[in-house]
Write a structure and sequence with these properties.
37% of the residues lie in helices and 10% in strands. The protein is α/β, with parallel strands linked by helices. The chain binds iron/sulfur cluster. The site of iron/sulfur cluster (SF4) has 15 residues, from helix 7.
């Protein structure tokens, strides 16, 4: 279904995602707009760093015992999505396997044109085993609905599949460990377009340290697939003024999917 380019659509969308004032007003506010930068402090977890002396001693690590690590070699990975999900469900390739409730693989259509990628499972996702099911997930659902998409006709996954304790940022070694599942899942899905939600997903996929403000709102490419970057819904919950800009991002993404090259 084409995206309406009318004020009615805009009003509908803004109501869907909880923006009360018109988009033009929002964008005209001083300090806001398409080129506005994200305040770095907002993107942090807010958790203080753990002093080195409080970290578990190496001999207490579950990775120091004789338990075999469950992590198939690349050539032995299943070649279908259900098989890959099943194989990943018992993965112990990084320390997050010791604190998770379950592996959160992904949700949606395996034949979807559009793949959304977030950062990592949160508390609710860890309990329910599905990405984006908390408040941020509800907002994502509303944003999808506003451009006539749903969780059933897109695919949604995260950069890593197990919840980091306290919702901290994933560590580089955890992202690296999970990349085998990530890459295999990407290859099986073969989306036409990918939308990265938030800084962690954008920096992982685009292999950059650039801030989100330098990455969002323009097209990138990864493995030959067009990649779009926008805000993570959890950030939008903390910064509602950015919802109007996120609407612009979602609308451009939808238009591109229907008319590649625009
Ligand atoms: S985060 Fe990824 S690599 Fe680490 S245990 Fe979970 S599935 Fe395995």
């Amino acid at each position: 279904m084409p995206v309406p380019d009318s004020g009615n659509f805009q009003t509908y969308y803004l109501r869907q995602i909880g923006v009360a004032r018109p988009i033009a007003e929002a964008l005209s506010r001083k300090g806001e707009g398409l080129s506005s930068a994200i305040e770095p402090s907002v993107l942090q977890t807010g958790l203080p760093p753990v002093p080195t002396e409080q970290m578990p001693a190496e001999e207490t690590s579950p990775f120091a015992n004789d338990e075999p690590v469950v992590y198939p070699e690349p050539g032995t990975l299943p070649t279908d999505l259900a098989g890959l999900r099943n194989a990943a469900s018992s993965c112990t390739a990084c320390e997050l396997s010791t604190s998770r409730n379950q592996v959160v693989f992904g949700v949606g259509s395996g034949h979807a044109d559009v793949l959304f990628i977030g950062e990592a499972p949160g508390e609710q996702e860890d309990v329910q085993g599905e990405p984006f099911v908390g408040r941020a997930g509800q907002l994502l659902n509303q944003m999808l609905a506003a451009v006539q998409w749903s969780r059933e006709n897109v695919y949604i996954m995260n950069v890593i599949k197990c919840r980091p304790p306290g919702n901290r940022d994933p560590k580089p070694e955890e992202v690296q460990a999970c990349s085998r599942w990530f890459d295999a899942q990407w290859d099986l899905l073969q989306p036409k377009v990918v939308c990265l939600l938030g800084r962690v997903a954008a920096q992982r996929v685009l292999e950059t340290d650039a801030p989100l403000s330098a990455l969002r709102g323009r097209w990138h490419e990864y493995r030959g697939i067009p990649v779009w970057v926008t805000y993570h819904p959890a950030y939008l919950l903390r910064s509602p003024s950015k919802k109007a800009v996120a609407w612009q991002d979602f609308r451009k993404l939808k238009v591109h999917c229907e008319s590649p090259g625009t």
